[in-house]
Fold each of these.
Amino acid sequence: MTYKSGPHFLQIPGPSHVPGRILRAIGQPTIDHRGPEFQALAHEVLAKVKPIFQTECPVVILPSSGTGAWEAALVNTMNVGDKVLMFETGQFSSLWAELATRLGLKPEVIAGDWRHGVDAAAIEARLLEDKGHEIKAVCVVHNETSTGVTSKIQNVRKAIDAANHPALFMVDSISGLASAEYKHDEWGVDVTVSGSQKGLMLPPGLGFNAVGPKAMKANENARINRSYWDWKSQIGMNADGWFPYTPATNLLYGLNEACDMLMDEGLENVFSRHERFAEATRRAVRTWGLEVLCQNADEYSPVLTAVVMPEGHSADSYRDTVLDKFDMSLGSGLGKVKDTVFRIGHLGYFNDLMLMGTLSGVEMGFAVAGVPHNKGGAQAAMEYLTGNA
């Protein structure tokens, strides 16, 4: 294997870069998870994570991927045979619907084109038709990682309320949390699902459920068999600083540090930083003469940008070239957009020079791979960043 000098550029939309400050926190010696030192850590981190979700509700921290957090949200609130209304915005909304089916639920999916966010009006119309209130939950993805589309969650809440429907409102903000504005309480979300490896800047391994009071009420009547995922036992033990199983102690050290980093910067500054990088990236894409997959400017993701390849050119082959020649990983197209788009991640622990290195690598990759494009995309991004420092 050829030796490659310098760091690998990981520009996929998660897992994201893990800063040294968090790696050093994770690298502390593991402690007794039944001792007073851990108890103090648990109380601290359980309190610190709430402002990241902008909630006063309990946040359940699970040793899992985001997929586990999806499952926990459903098994703690639903019963076998329950209908759940989902909106197709991309690969991850589709996978959540598949998971619901495997759990014995009956997902009804409103079809989407993978280029727009959730259509709140379509959800309202469907809920108005549901006179018997058979639909028990509305499940949507906040930031669709496969497409670079961010949906307006507050509009979905308004649609549910306008239909006067009692369905729970569940939101996957796995890639949105701590990168795009998100307000669990203010937006009236009943369960927020998230994960550690995106805006929280941690390695994969922690899943989250922010649990509102309506969801806790539903939990009392939920009969899907569960043990490991059970909210009640976890929230009960968390109150005293404990977990009902061996927790991911060292990842909790990292989460504690991540929360401090985010609050030190200030969430509004975090969000504006991400918006700035996203706009610079889109300017580069347009200068290259290429197309952003997301078609609605109001729904552009601050987390990643999905770029449509010119017709007849393979996105995967291009990505292979960039990896081989410049040691940079770009996100692949998933599901319906496989091999037709690539994704540029600009989230988490990220700054101007990292973005310029990324966009320069993308543009050099076009030249080496023979992808038709106009020169100057990286320059256009640099001019924007310089003018909006």
Amino acid sequence: MGQDVEAREFSREDRTLYRAKVRRCLDVFARMLSERDFSVEHTHVGVEIEFNLVDDGGDPAMKNVETLEAIADDAFQTELGLFNIEINVPPTLVEGSGLESLESTLRDDLNAAQVKSSEVGAHLVMIGILPTLQDGHLSQHSLSANPRYHLLSDQILAARGEDIEIVIEGVDRLSTTADTIIPEAACTSTQLHLQVDPEDFAPMWNAAQAIAGAQVAIGANSPFLLGQQLWHETRIALFEQATDTRSEELKAQGVRPRVFFGERWITSVFDLFEENVRYFPALLPIVDDEDPVEELEAGRIPSLSELRLHNGTIYRWNRPIYDIADGRPHLRIENRLLPAGPTVVDTMANAALFYGLVKILGTSERPVWSRLSFRKAEDNFHEAARFGIETELYWPLVGQVPARDLVLRHLLPQAHEGLELLGVDQAVRDRLLGIIESRCTTGRNGSTWLIQEFEYQKRRATDRTTAMRATTQAYEELMHAGEPVHSWATRG
């Protein structure tokens, strides 16, 4: 959810000053791209994962404060809901066995945190949406105490001018309203970070957009919300609606949503930051004392805090990141469209597919986006979210094809090649991409397993709530056992 801020109210003057400052930052960013060294000698990658907290019965545990105190590890942080926490795994080199090291760190941290959190009656679950969430869990009392979340909620509701309406048509139909952004807390995701050079950013970002549909189809893990079976990756639809600042009238006028797939292929990272400034009003107009022009001309690296904070309130599925590390500026792509889970190794398999495909497609002489319309890429993304691993996707030179076939026959070989270009050891890429291959051949990902398990539990239970609870507990046990989801048994 971004950097911490203090509770406050905003005046018209705040917004006027902020607009001027963020534009000044944008001008400085443009100069930095031509004057400063952003180069990447060795590619670093990183992972953030959001968790749900559950009690012994599989229901949401509103205990993120107690859980974080018990874990006592700075890698774990608060998140939007009292039933959420997040882990930030330190970045690592992707080459060699880097992905394996990332996996080992994540697994060790999760195991240690699970032991400590159990002492306060909370268990960590990696899943896109917790099946046992009910309406009563999504009240304003479930918001974490961090002032940033309350500020964001107040500002989004004020901009919208009315309560948030959630309507999702799937296998079942869900229609509900909220007077805060707490439904967003139901969406727990995996965020993959990839460091890139400025000259490589546009092709890499375009590649990430092009493969979004395939990523979601293969990685879907969110079929249930508030007791209803909706999309295979319901998280996509929920997140888009839960943070929407637009009334129906503004939607009809074509005002852009805060959760944004985008609207065109880009030629520079600057395009995305410039769109942010041009299209989106400030939600958190907080101005600091730094003058970015003075910093740049003094030979220092400007923080560009207003530009970064503004970027953090625009929820692109592939978000551009400007950051500073070891006294040097750098750029990252933050891939935000995957759900959490089902397991650590599934997460790393999803990461390997993403990193490999973005690398190879982003360096292609005949880029895929030269033959794929941006609208079709967005259509692929939403179709995959709705229908999951059995959806059909459009791909250049292939046409309309089942997602499983597209990944098996076309994308996996390219992902192997991309990981090889990144210097990833063959044993690592074979193992991780082999998990993606097995998902495709079995047709089983987190979403399909959850749906099948719920059908089994529903036949044994007296009501849907009990079946959801049993499904969640079965999932939790297998998640912590750690075997990839394609190998999980289904019960008829």
Amino acid sequence: MIELLRRIIRFAVVIVVAFIGLVMALILTFSTLIAIVFLLVISRLRGKPFEAKEYWMARRSGRKSTSTQGSLNAKDVTDVESRDVR
């Protein structure tokens, strides 16, 4: 009888955790949809079409890329020796 109660409690905990995960996924989905709708409305008000590719290209252009900076200088490199600890 006690084993049956333990299994029922475990099952209830799993169901509650799954439900919490489902709610979190729904919140993420709806917040993403709201953000996309917001971007679409703003782009319509500005008179420009909203394209995801242009948006991400504009976002990336402000960042510095490590591949475009050229080769590394000697003072940019740190020599690190690692050893396994047992």
Amino acid sequence: MSDRTKTRLITALKTAGPQTAAELAKAEGVTSVAARQHLDSLLAEGLVGFEDIKGAVGRPKRVWTLTREGHAQFPDNHSGLILGLLDGMKELYGDEGINRLIAHREQEALKVYSTALADKVELKDKLCALAEIRSREGYMASVEENVDTGGFFLVENHCSICAAATTCQGFCRSEMSLFRAVLGQDVDLTRTEHLLSGGRRCVYHVKQSA
């Protein structure tokens, strides 16, 4: 299997979530037979897994997902180095040192994000600009409208600092604070999915305050 095809398939599973071979084939413009062959190869490499889901009628539907190893194909911003630095920081300066580091990171990001959103007035425009920045940082971010609430979802299919955030959840709390700061006080923001809590991605529901 070509590396290009492998990358396309694992990227499709990363961004769109669990899918059948037929769904992947349609999205990638290949035959279902070819998609299944590629998925079998990825299965042998330990990058994907599957679950056979029974429906009301007919044969069970095989749904493919990324494994932990599959998710690891996406960059984590030099996780080993980051974890080493965090361990050293904690040993030298304790939890207060870690908290000050997170606060400093948040303030530096706030400067960059605020500049990028400075000329945006509408909430959707702000979110699209924010998603563009986050994608450049490796979060594979996008914006989706929520027709039920009139709000939006900021979707991040990857966490580029996952190792650091797993070690210190202060990073996740800091990012929530950062989003609230750049989007404005008149915005309600809640996290509805969390990668570190077992979700396949992080999702934030955002809407104008009543």
